[in-house]
Write a structure and sequence with these properties.
- By secondary structure, the protein is of the alpha+beta class.
- The chain is 27% helix and 31% strand.
- The protein has helices at 6-18, 24-46, 53-56, and strands spanning 68-76, 80-87, 95-104, 109-119, 132-133, 136-137, 143-145.
- The longest helix is centred in the N-terminal third of the chain and has 23 residues, at 24-46.
- It is globular and about 45 Å long.
- The termini are far apart.
Length: 147
């Protein structure tokens, strides 16, 4: 039987220390940020939003995920799109994102923006539809702004 040297133990512990675990919630949040960014790129290229994950170039299958179901909640192609990561398990929070065009009439300009909201408590329900009021979007009831 070979004995491990002190250096070998250090290497093993060092490698184990580099292994990290991504929680389902943080993975969902990363996907929501990605979808928001892809929607901005899409509207800049196509002059409209889309509710088609394939058109966006999303590389994961929205319904084949273990912890979340990804879907579009609402779209007004020329102005706003809302999407969500709805938890499939009781202990997980859900997320909704909104990408929209904000019109600044004073500057005669349009800016693409997005927000990401997290449910205040774990839920398996889809979020309510958001509204664009005075060029701003707020999180739906039961959700708080995180980005």
């Amino acid at each position: 039987m070979k004995k491990l040297t002190l250096i070998s133990y250090g290497l093993i512990f060092s490698l184990l220390g580099c292994v990290s675990y991504v929680t389902p919630e943080s993975a969902a949040l990363n996907k929501m940020q990605g979808i928001a960014t892809l929607e901005i790129a899409y509207i800049l290229e196509k002059n409209k939003f889309t509710s088609d994950f394939d058109e966006l170039g999303v590389t994961f299958k929205p319904e084949e995920r273990n912890h979340y179901s990804y879907k579009f909640i609402f779209i007004e192609e020329q102005r706003i799109v809302q999407f969500a990561a709805v938890a499939k398990q009781l202990f997980l929070k859900s997320y909704t994102g909104v990408t929209y065009l904000a019109i600044d009439k004073n500057k005669n300009s349009v800016e693409a923006k997005y927000i990401i909201c997290e449910s205040d408590k774990p839920t398996q329900k889809s979020p309510d539809k958001v509204e664009l009021i005075d060029e701003k979007v707020e999180c739906p009831n039961g959700y708080s702004l995180i980005e």
